[in-house]
Amino acid sequence: MNISRIDAYIRREERLERLTRRDIEAMQLRKLNALLRREKERGGFYRELPEHLDALSELAELPFTTDEDLAQHAAGLLLCSQAEIRRVLSDATSGTTGAAKRVFYTEGDLENTVRLFVTGLGEFVYPGSVTMICMPFSGPHGLGELIAEAISRLGARPLKVGVGKSYGELREILERERPDSFVGMPAPLLALLRVCGRGSLRRALVSGDACPQSVTSACEELLQSRLFPHYGSREMALGGAICCPAHEGMHLREQHVIAEIVDERGRVLPWGETGELVITTIGMEAMPLIRYRTGDFTRILPAPCPCGSEVLRLDTLRRRAEPGDIFALDEALFALPSLVDFRAERGERGLRIEALFAGAPDTDALRERAAAACPGTEIGISARPVREDDRPLYPGKRRILLP
Ligand SMILES: [Zn+2]
Q1: CA of 244 to the centre of ligand 1 (A)
Q2: What is the distance in A from the centroid of ligand 1 to the CA of 251?
């Protein structure tokens, strides 16, 4: 039987002959105990935790790590020296205290992320081909650069497009460079395909924002191939879980991350039930976290995957619903086949939607769908055909703008 790419990758890295659940969990327990022992020895942030667990199930008894901890105790959480840090990501908006949440990476952490990307992208990026990367390029070791490095290692050529280009510029890039694959966020991919037409790209990996079913279906119809979703977060050094050819969930890099799903009271849920994803990043060098609450909701799909792997799979992820959540509106509106993009803003007089269409705007259908998605809300719409100088209406994650 063929060995799946995710299995081959983990077996190679960990020098394992087989990769059954038992092998995976034994490896995770060994790494977790090494981390607990190191924390005790150095008097780190987790020094009060036991220094040894007899079973992986005992992890459920340890306390959670929160965004507040990341903001307040970054120095205590750091396991490496300042000299070993290659990159810091900080987020000034998180946490109630206003302190910035900071996550640090070493060279090894970033290398592990690139290797995961090589494994995931290797499913559909072929040697000699061209891949356009519509992710932020924020300097050395940024997300875009890590993806570009992975594409180069696969023998393909990365096109560093970034985010925020106009549709005219994107069309020109497609015509000049002829990329066949794409890496970027889901809604901008759909917009690009709806402006530039079916077959302008062949295969795509989407990440960085929630992906409603309507967006997935429309992208797959225009690409004439299945999407490869990816899940990552800063706490996992940007790379976390990758899609295999079965397209049923995303395999987690379990040699570096232990996943649990918990209910709202923090109790661990069995596989198959939906709750908040909690991660223990046993493989991170700079800043391993124990039971970090991600704020992302999903479930673990039962093993094994049709690809043969027993590596844990996460289902589609959703952020914790909070004011400004645009998911339901995206789901409803992007089902309209000519909608390129829209921006939504909540004001005193209800919801204002600014929409761009490929061709004549279908305002009535848009209003009807928005009303069904947001019952009891007054809806104002301005819609026009998309122009070549238009750009994606959201530079990053999508959300309803609040007053
Ligand atoms: Zn699989």
Answers
A1: 5
A2: 7
Token look-up 């970090």 returns: 292
pLDDT tens digits along 270-319: 999 999 999 999 999 999 999 999 999 999 998 789 999 999 999 999 88
Is-contact 222 194, C-beta < 8 A? yes
CA of 301 to the centre of ligand 1 (A): 11
Nearest Cα neighbor of 130 from 83, 177, 167, 171 is: 177
Task: Report strand pairing: 292-298 vs 275-280.
Answer: antiparallel
- What the block records as the tokens of 277 is 């994803």
How far is the centre of ligand 1, averaged over its atoms, from the C-alpha of 285 (Å)? Answer: 27
Gap from CA of 47 to ligand 1 centroid (Å): 37
State the pTM of this model. 0.94
Spatial distance between the Cα atoms of 106 and 280, rounded to a whole number of angstroms: 17
SS3 204: strand
**Is residue 108 predicted with pLDDT exceeding 70?**
yes
CB 110 within 8 A of CB 120: no
Q: How far is the CA of 318 from the centre of ligand 1 (A)?
A: 21
Q: Output the CA 20–ligand 1 centroid distance in Å.
A: 13
pLDDT of residue 99: 63
Name the average pLDDT for the chain: 93
Q: 297 C-alpha to center of ligand 1: Å? A: 20
**Phi, psi (degrees; rounded to nearest 5) at 143:** -55, -50
Helix 213-223 × helix 186-196 angle, to 10°: 40
